[in-house]
Amino acid sequence: MEHTSRYGRITWINCAKCVAILAVLVDHTYQRLYDNQDISKLSYFSVSMFILLAGMTTYMSIENHPMGWMKNFFRLSKKILSAYCLSVVVFYIVIYHSFDLENYIRFLFSFNITLPHYFVFRYLQLMIVSKGLWCIVKYCRGRWAILFECIIFIIIAAVSLLTTKYTNVLNIYGGGGKLFGGTYLILFYIGMFIMKHYSLLRKVFYKQEQALSARRKKLWILSGISLILVAAWWRYECIDNFCIDSKLLLGDGINPPGIILTIMALFVLIVSYGMFTLLEQYKWTKNISVFVSWLGGYSMYIFLYHRLFEDYFLNQILFNNIWAKRFVYFSVMIGCPILIGFVVKIIRNWCKKVAAYGNSQILLRNQNIT
């Protein structure tokens, strides 16, 4: 689904989600589909970028649907919570070939039926503070707004460093086990900050009087420069091996992320904006952007279910050709979760229709009684 707000239709955000989820799959197939650690390091930005995008979409969502803190939390969380609860059921049955309600509840609240499920708890923690962060970012206005936003950034960075180093929540893996996600909170704030000032970016590339050729030229330049930055930073990441993060006492600098992955996620975000916005400017490439955006719309299901097919089905198959193996792995890890997403949407829509029909029958019955 495309994200729409006062900023206009933003297809590239879902495209960026697709880039991030593909990087997740590359990361999780290390030593199964390839052995080059440098390629693995290139994919480490994936979850950091998801949090950047979560900050951006959450800012838009709260702005479009103003409501109280509790209602806001449940509205932002209900989709991933329902998908998560179902995924734990599916994983439990596949892994243990049975279903035990007590153990299911234990896995449900420990967020560890598989490693990627930690992401849900970290997301929920960020949704708890989302309304407060939105208010802070939204109402920093006036002459000194940027200064106040920078001061808030420093405060959030300091708090995040402390929570990364000194907190532990339920022994959950990575950022899920840190209060408010540890340094992921910084990325979430940056995402909100970007979306607040997104209109300035649109003014550069979408001036009404600007010729289409001039807009395309700017996007080509932006895409080219940002790709060079990604390549250069990836090279530095491979050489430094996250030493700078360890010196700053940020642990391994991977999960929660340190400076290296934060900057890489920002660079890839810029690449995604430039390239997919550019694709939309040409009739013969616009459909590519639409298709990638469609795939990105199912990133949540791919994230939740890809390990199910990778660990419990695909690893049972023997392949003679590595490229055939890669093609089958990625096709199944992307296609099957999308199929699950389709089925869930059909069931959800059917339930809504049944509920609407039931409510209409109750109203008719009450009218007949009166």
Describe the structure.
With 370 residues, the chain is mainly alpha-helical. It is 75% helix and 2% strand. The chain has a two-stranded antiparallel sheet. α14 (299-312) packs across α15.
**Largest sheet composition:** 2 strands, antiparallel
- Please report which band the strand proportion falls in: under 5%, 5-15%, 15-25%, 25-35%, 35-45% or over 45%: under 5%
Helix content: over 70%
The unreliable regions are none
Strand order of the largest sheet: 1-2
| Overall mean pLDDT | 87
Task: Give the number of DSSP strands.
Answer: 2
What is the approximate shape?
globular
Q: Roughly how many Å is the radius of gyration?
A: 22 Å
The protein's oligomeric status is single chain
SSE succession: EEHHHHHHHHHHHHHHH
Number of helices, counting only DSSP H or I runs of 4 residues or more: 15
What separation lies between the terminal Cα atoms?
A: 43 Å
The helix-and-strand class reads mainly alpha
Q: Would you kindly provide a brief summary of this structure?
A:
The protein has helices at residues 11-28, 37-42, 46-64, 69-96, 101-110, 118-138, 145-166, 184-196, 198-205, 212-240, 243-247, 259-279, 283-296, 299-312, 322-369; strands at 3-5, 8-10. With 370 residues, it is mainly α.
Features:
370 residues, mainly alpha, 15 helices, 2 strands, globular
Reconstruct the topology from this structure:
Blueprint: E1 3-5, E2 8-10, H1 11-28, H2 37-42, H3 46-64, H4 69-96, H5 101-110, H6 118-138, H7 145-166, H8 184-196, H9 198-205, H10 212-240, H11 243-247, H12 259-279, H13 283-296, H14 299-312, H15 322-369
Antiparallel strand pairs: 1-2
Helix pairs in contact: 1-3, 1-12, 1-13, 1-14, 3-6, 3-8, 3-12, 4-6, 4-14, 6-8, 7-8, 10-12, 14-15
